Each structure stands twice: as C-alpha cells, then as structure tokens.
Amino acid sequence: MKNTILEMKNSLEGLSSRIEDAEEWIRELGGRLEEITQAKQKKEKRIRQNENSLRELWDNIKHANIRIIGVPEGEERDKGAEILFEEIIEENFPNLRKETDIQVQEAQRDPNKRSPKRSTPRHIIIKMSKIKEKILKAARERPQVTYKGKPIRLSGDFSAKTLQARREWHNVFITC
C-alpha cells in the first residue's frame, strides 16, 4: 500500500512537472505571438508610410501636368498634341494666351488602353514647364471648356490613389 501511495505521489509529481512545463511553454508562445503581432503591425505601418511617400512622390512628378479629358481619339495625330492644346487655350482662354508664355514640354495620349466597357477616349497628358495653376484656375472659372464646340475638361494630373482619396472626400463633403 505504501508503494502504491509512493507511486501515485511520484506520478502526481511527474504530472505536476509536465503541467508546469506546458504552462511555461504556453507563456513563451504567448510572448512570441505578441512579438509577431507587433512586428506585423510595424510592417503594415511601414508599408502604409511607403505607399503614402510613393503617392506624394508620384504627385510631385506629375505636379506640372495637365490632363485633358474628352478630346476624340485621333485628333492629335494630324497636328500633334501640343498644337491641339494651344488651340484649346486659344479657343477658350485667348487673354491667357496673350498675357503669358505657355510652354509645353511634352504632350501625349495617356498610354492606358481604352476600356471596352467605357466609350470615353483616352486622356491627353500635357507636361508644362510653368503656369499650370493659371490655366486650371481659368478652366474652373469658365462654365464650360470646349474643343471645336464639344465640351472637354482640364484637370490636374494626379496619381490614382490621390484621385481615389479625393473622390472619397468629395462624397464626405456632399453628405455633410
């Protein structure tokens, strides 16, 4: 009987020791899990910061660009996109053309393929050396900007993420 009690006592101590080891192992795993979670959160924060930095850098690169929306495909083939832009300025803002020296560095169609779901033409991107703000301000003040009598839009050229953020804020302002 003493032997059985002693065996049970030893067995109980062994089980107790195993339980303590298991609890220690669980504590260690909990610590590791917390470290991994913190590292993941830091990584996600760094990714968001990098995405924002990239968006800001991209917007700075595109800062001098004007986007022309709504000009039919092929209009720029005959005379070039720079001449087309000058015609738009002459047609809509003759005083601006006389007051300032508009310098176009480069002009081209947006290289993105047209979506078969949308019938709108590709945008024309105009890279300016200066006075972009004057042109955009004049376009905002004018009720309608046209090219050969057809309505078009002039806007700043921003990254897709910035445009999406502006759309989201626009919806917020509308609901307020």
Automatic annotation (TrEMBL):
Biased segments, Basic and acidic residues type: 102-113
Keyword set includes Oxidoreductase: no
GO cellular component, one term: ribonucleoprotein complex
InterPro entries: L1_RRM_dom, Transposase_22
UniProt feature coiled coil, ranges: 26-53
Chain segments carrying region Disordered: 102-121
GO molecular function: single-stranded RNA binding
Domain L1 transposable element RRM stretches: 64-157
Keywords recorded for this protein, A-Z: Coiled coil
Domain of life of the organism encoding this protein: Eukaryota
Pfam families associated with the record: Transposase_22
Gene Ontology BP, a term: retrotransposition
Gene3D superfamilies to which the protein is assigned, alphabetical: L1 transposable element, RRM domain, L1 transposable element, trimerization domain
Family per record: Belongs to the transposase 22 family.
Stated name of the protein: L1 transposable element RRM domain-containing protein
